[in-house]
Amino acid sequence: MSTRAAVALTQASWRTAKSYRFSFVLSFVSLAVTIVPVYFVANALQQFMAPVISSEGRDYFGFVLIGTAMLTLVSAALSSFASAVSGGLSSGFFEALLVTPTSLGPLLAGQTGYAFVWAAARAILLVGVGAFLGVDLRWLRLPEAMLVTMLLMGAYAGVGLIAAALVVSFRTNAAIPQGVLVISTLLGGVYFPTSVLPPVMAPIAEWLPLTPGLRALRQALLLGYPLSAISGDLLQLAGLALGCAVVGGVALRLAFRYARKAGSLGQY
Asked: Residue 214: which of 162, 156, 159 has the closest Cα?
C-alpha cells in the first residue's frame, strides 16, 4: 500500500508537469544547448587545467560535466523535501495526506519522486550530450558511479530533510538548501579540484559530501579506477550520508511531533 501510494503521487506530479508540454520540452532543449558553450570554454582552458585536474581526470570538459550533472541531482535533494512540505501545507494537501493510512516516508517519497526523476533525467541528458561531444567515459565503471551517486544523494537528502523539518516547525527553511548548495558549489570541486583551495578552506571542503563524491565519481568514470581504488572516498561519503540521513530523519519526526502538539499543522 505504501509503495503504491508513493508511485501514485509521483504519477500525479508527472501528469501535471506533462500538461505544460512546451515548458517541458524547452527545459530539456535549453539544458542541452547550455552545455555547448561550456564545451568550448573548457577546451580553451584545457592546457592550463590539465595538470591541476590530473588526479581526477584528463579532460577538463569531462571534469566540469560530471560536476555539473551531480550538482543538478544535489540541488533536487536539497530543495525537494522542503518545497513539497511547504507547498502541501499552504494548500492543505499535505495535511490531508497525513490522515491517510500511509506512513510519512512513502508520502514524502511520492511528493518528491517526480523532482528526483526529473533531476536524474536532466543529469543523464547532460552526460549524454557530453559523451556525444567527445568525453571519454569508462562505462564499465558505471556500477561504481551509481553507488557513489546514491550515497551522494542520500547525504544531501538528509540535509533536505532538516530543511523540511524547519518548514514543519517554523514555516521557514532558514535558507539551508540555498546556503548548502552555494557552499558545495564553491568548495565541493564542481569547477575546480579542491586541491587548489587555500589551506584554511581545504578542511571545510572535506566535510562536504560533494567533495569525496565527485572525486570518487570522476576517478571511476574518467580514469577507470576500480572500487578498491576509490574505497577511501567511498567510506568517507558513506559516513557522511549515514550521519546526514539519520539526523534529517530524526529532525523531521520531531518536527511533526512538535507541530501536532502545538496545533500548527492546521493553521493553514
From this structure: 156
Q: In the 3-class helix/strand/coil scheme, how is the chain assigned residue by residue?
A: CHHHHHHHHHHHHHHHHHCCHHHHHHHHHHHHHHHHHHHHHHHHCHHHHCCCCCCCCCCHHHHHHHHHHHHHHHHHHHHHHHHHHHHHHHHCHHHHHHCCCCCHHHHHHHHHHHHHHHHHHHHHHHHHHHHHCCCCCCHHHHHHHHHHHHHHHHHHHHHHHHHHHHHHHHCCCCCHHHHHHHHHHHHCCCCCCHHHCCCCCHHHHHCCCHHHHHHHHHHHHCCCCCHHHHHHHHHHHHHHHHHHHHHHHHHHHHHHHHHHHHCHHHCC
Whole-angstrom distance, CA of residue 37 vs CA of residue 33: 8
Q: How far apart are CA 128 and CA 134, in angstroms?
A: 10
**Is-contact 193 222, C-beta < 8 A?**
no
- Sign for the pseudo-dihedral over CA of 78, 80, 83, 88: negative
Contact 268, 95 (CB under 8 A): yes
The answer to whether 255 touches 166, Cβ cutoff 8 Å, is yes
Successive 10-residue mean pLDDT values, the chain, 268 residues: 61 61 68 84 92 93 95 93 78 64 71 84 90 92 95 95 90 89 94 90 92 96 94 95 94 86 61
What is the distance between the alpha carbons of residues 246 and 4, in angstroms, rounded to a whole number? Answer: 25
Residue ranges per structural domain of the chain: 2-266
Extract the C-alpha cell encoding 206: 572535506
